[in-house]
Design a protein that fits this description.
The chain is an alpha/beta fold. It is 31% helix and 31% strand. The strands form 2 sheets. Strands 1-8-7-6-2-5 form a 6-stranded mixed beta sheet, with helices on both faces. The protein has a two-stranded antiparallel sheet with strand order 3-4.
């Protein structure tokens, strides 16, 4: 009976913790878009360098961030391309010189902190800067910093790239 009560108490505490700690995110606009992006224009996305926290590099985090961004833009264009070779605007311009009616997207991982062990009770944290450039005018069309923390619980939670999905979808939708 005592073991049964202990198990019930543990489940109640961890479940309450999960319910009260959802993912949180912030959006800081750096460059306010002057006009909406045009649906259907091609989107070329650079792959950012992998994220780091302290002395740990998170292998594949750059590709994961680019993939999340690609999925968000795919709702508004049939031609969305992620370049594994490019990490900056100059490279995107060089490799897509013939592109018309296009936008270049340059993400940068500012913070990537993944907690492999949920017992630490510390959340995963991600912060990504997304800059969008109009190809025809070679000007910044919009930019923002998106940051997200996932819920921290003993029962597990989202990975950093999963917490990025909602803020990226919201931000990209706001551009159209």
């Amino acid at each position: 009976m005592r073991l049964h009560s202990l198990i019930l108490a543990f489940v109640a505490v961890t479940t309450a913790g999960c319910a009260s700690q959802g993912n949180t995110f912030n959006q800081t606009v750096i460059t306010e878009p002057k006009t909406s992006l045009v649906r259907g224009h091609s989107i070329f996305i650079a792959t950012p360098k992998n994220g780091w926290y302290e002395n740990v590099e998170y292998q594949g985090s750059g590709r994961m961030a680019a993939s999340n961004i690609r999925a968000a833009f795919a709702r508004f264009s049939d031609h969305v391309v992620v370049s594994d070779q490019c990490q900056d605007l100059a490279c995107l311009k060089r490799t897509n010189t013939g592109a018309r009616n296009a936008y270049f997207v340059v993400p940068e991982i500012l913070h990537w902190e993944s907690r492999d062990k949920n017992w630490t009770m510390r959340p995963d944290v991600i912060e990504v800067k997304i800059s969008v450039f109009d190809h025809e005018h070679s000007k910044s069309a919009a930019s923002a910093i998106l940051s997200s923390k996932n819920k921290n619980s003993l029962l597990g939670g989202d990975r950093p790239q999963d917490t990025l999905q909602d803020p990226v979808n919201r931000y990209v939708s706001s551009l159209y």
